[in-house]
Amino acid sequence: MKVGIIQQHNTADIADNRRRLIDKIRHLAADGAELIVNQELHDSLYFCQTESPEMCDLAVKVPSEATAAYADLAKELGVVIVTSVFERRTAGLYHNTALVFDTDGSLAGTYRKMHIPDDPAYYEKFYFAPGDLGFRPIDTSLGRLGVLVCWDQWYPEAARLMALAGAEILIYPTAIGWESTDSDEEKARQREAWITVQRGHAVANGLPVVAVNRVGHEPDPSGATGGIQFWGSSFVAGPQGEMLFAASDSLETNAVVDIDLRRCEQVRRWWPFLRDRRIDAYAPILNRFNDEQPIPPHDK
Fold this sequence. Notes:
This protein is an alpha+beta fold. Helix content is 23%, strand content 27%. The relative contact order is 0.15.
C-alpha cells in the first residue's frame, strides 16, 4: 500500500487551509498514493487552546459541504482519504470525528475520538463528547483501517481492540506540540515518548502505524500562554516498529510511503503475541484502579 501523509501548518483562514490540503492531496495521488491521511482537525486552527462557546460555530454537520469536498476528491482521484472534523451532531453535542472516504466517494466509516484530554491548552472536554462508536475498524477497498485520533494514541487498549477487530493498519490523525515554557530537554522527552508508545503499538500488534501531526506555531487567543508549537514529526512505522518514514519537526511535509502489509502475517508468525495472550487473567483491566480488592492469582 502506498500511503500519503500531509503535515501542514494551519492558519485562521479555513478556506485557504482546505485549498492547500486539496492541492496536496492531488499531488500525492499523482505520485501514486492510494491512501491519504490528514492531521487532526485539519481545516482550522487548533481551537481547543481556550474554552470559548463561539468556537462551536466551527463545527460541521456530517454530511455537509465541508465533508463533500473530500468525498468528491476521493472519487475523482480514486483514493481513500482519512479526514478529521469537528462534528456537529446537534446543538450542544459535538465530537472530534474521523471520516474515511472510499475510492468511489462513499463514506466508508466514521470514528469518534474515544479518549478526550483536558490539559492546559488542550481543553477538549469543553468541546467534545467522548466517542460512542467503539473501537471498530473501517472497511475500505484498500483494506480494514484502524482509525483512532490523537489522545487515543497513548492507550494500548485502543490499539489492541482495533487489532482484535481485524484492523490491518493503525492510523492516528494528530495535533500535539510543545508548551512554550518547557525546557528543551522536556520537549525532547515528550516527543520521543509520543513516538515510542506508538511504535510499541506497532510491535505489540504486528501492524503498521501511521501518525500524522500538524506543524508550526499557533498562538493562544487568550494570551495566557505562548501558544503551541506543534512538533510535526509525523511518521510511519512497520509491524516491528521499524521507522519507514519520519517527517521534520518544523517543516510542512508531504510524502508517499510504501507499506508492505504482507509482512504483518510473517511478523505475527515470528512473534505470536495474539496466540499467547492470557485472556483468562485480564479481567482486572476493566477496573479504574485495582486498589479495592486483591487481584486473584492465576496459573502461569
